[in-house]
Design goal:
Strand content: 5-15%
CATH topology: Arc Repressor Mutant, subunit A
Number of domains: 1
Keywords: DNA-binding
GO molecular function, one term: DNA binding
Protein name: Rrf2 family transcriptional regulator
InterPro entries: Tscrpt_reg_Rrf2 (IPR000944), WH-like_DNA-bd_sf (IPR036388), WH_DNA-bd_sf (IPR036390)
Length: 143
């Protein structure tokens, strides 16, 4: 499993918004500058996060983005699943995988399933609140 740039950047954006929470919306330019991500690429990531209810966006003066929930209500797992589609280590464990004809005799399936469960449980138990450090807000972490 390799997490793509899209997944890593989505996490960075969500952490950034967790660290810079207020009643106001955070402008795209500010997020892009802090995270050193191009605005154009960031727009694509933010669009997915807004469409799926993770963020709320507002256009125009005073616009930008903000979280729709508190940071402790987002898990790393759900953010990565949204952006990556799957974190499965092998294709037979991906959502909507075509059943494998060798499944009944597969000697490695349980091993891969165990790894998949570990990954899911691990990322499912880390929240944005766990990763955000308001006292050290900014671009001082690398994902």
């Amino acid at each position: 499993m390799i997490v793509s740039t899209k997944g890593r950047y989505a996490l960075r954006v969500m952490i950034d918004l967790s660290e810079h929470q207020s009643e106001k919306y955070v402008p795209l330019k500010e997020i892009a500058a802090r995270q050193e991500i191009s605005e154009k690429y960031l727009e694509n990531i933010l669009k997915v996060l807004v469409q799926n209810g993770f963020l709320e966006g507002l256009r125009g003066k005073g616009g930008g983005y903000r979280l729709t929930r508190s940071p402790d209500q987002y898990t790393v797992g759900e953010i990565l699943m949204l952006t990556e589609g799957s974190l499965a280590p092998v294709s037979c464990l991906t959502p909507h995988a075509t059943p494998c004809s060798r499944m009944a005799n597969c000697r490695t399936y349980e091993m891969w399933k165990g790894l998949n469960d570990l990954i899911s449980n691990y990322f499912g138990n880390i929240t944005l609140a766990d990763l955000a450090r308001p006292d050290q807000a900014g671009n001082d972490y690398v994902i």
